[in-house]
Amino acid sequence: MKTVIRNFVRVATVGVVMMVAGVGLAQNLPPGTHSVDDPTQQDPAQEEIAAAESALEHGDYAGAEAKLKALAASHPKDARVQYDLGFAADHNNDEATAETGYRAAIAADDSVAEPKLALGLMEARADKTKQAHEDLLTAANTQGATPELRARAFRAMASLDDGEDPINAQAELMEALKLTPETPADVRLGAELAEQMGEPELAEKAYRKTLEQSPGDVEADAGLAHVLMQQKKLDEADKVVTEGLAQHPGDPRLVAQAVPVYAAEDKAAVAIPMMEVLRKSDATFAANAEMTLVLAHLYETQNDEASAEKLYLELVTKTPDDPTLLDDLGSAEVRLGKYAQAETVLSKAFGMRKQFDDDDAWGDTAEHLAFASSKNNNPKLALQALAARATVMPNSASSLFLQAISYDSLHQRKEAEETYKAFLAAANGKYPDQEFQARHRLVALRNEK
Fold this sequence. Notes:
Number of helices: 25
Distance between the termini: 71 Å
Helix content: over 70%
Strand content: under 5%
Largest sheet: none
């Protein structure tokens, strides 16, 4: 979303300058200044100002900035010169000089809105969200500002709030629409905001309208697929992402939406190669933890535990204190028969109870640890984990079986017998192999008395 904001504010800045550079501020200059278009004025600097503005008009921002620095020093109260300096420096990525120029223009004439807008847009591109919002709001509220300029400010604020404060963003977008006609970008932003506010049906309508206005809009395709998924419209979502990928093969935004659609349709065999290719070609996608986790889970659906383990290790290296990731890693290692490693990893996760989202998730990890410990010939730890699990979850057939075989391994015959019997009652024919083992051990334990 920050990329979208930066693109928006860069375009908006150019729009401001095309409107005001050279002559825009000449119609609203501070007292004591003049227009270079006024032939009655004899200011010897007017030729230099005209030359600097000509350089701006021809895209020679470096040359313009060099000229304007000297002019700004000799004309500190000239809002037009200061604004031009800010604009030139802004395009040269000289943020310090740009900010100085914009603020000097505002100080010279607070009634002029253009430098306030330009300053806010520059701050937005630099992710200085709070300052940007303040300066954009000031621009929007400047008396005498044109409707177009005020609308740009409101749209920029809406873009900043997109993803963070959708209610405020929606209000800012509505203010912009009161001032200027709706654009396709407005429709798409409205769709995003409806989605963020939990209104997928409204979002779907807006995304479809965006695609009518701008066929092939990848962001709209991805957004539409996402809200269709939210509404369980898998066939429609599949059609959107499949057609989108046919036009834009391997686009990360579409792949990110296609993967959950294909996974929900049990098309892991389609989703996995798509993700693997994109991870090799797109470093940003490869570094995306959410997509990496999805791929690991998809590998597991195909019984490719080795590939899943590799990705879990990658994620745990980056986020070592995430108990859910540790549980995923440990569980994969169990399935690979790496019981000692699994016990170590799951023990760490088990010890992080406060960091779990809920008690059930922690209880599941306790059971996973018990299984790994049992397989690693550590029945004492298995029983400790199962006892902890019992404090937050009722016993299950699987937990009772683990408990019984752990007691059995420790030669605690009475406890083992009682728990085998409890397991058989809970299993009720659902686990034939384990039930056979339990009955066999019960006979053996009775004979040992």
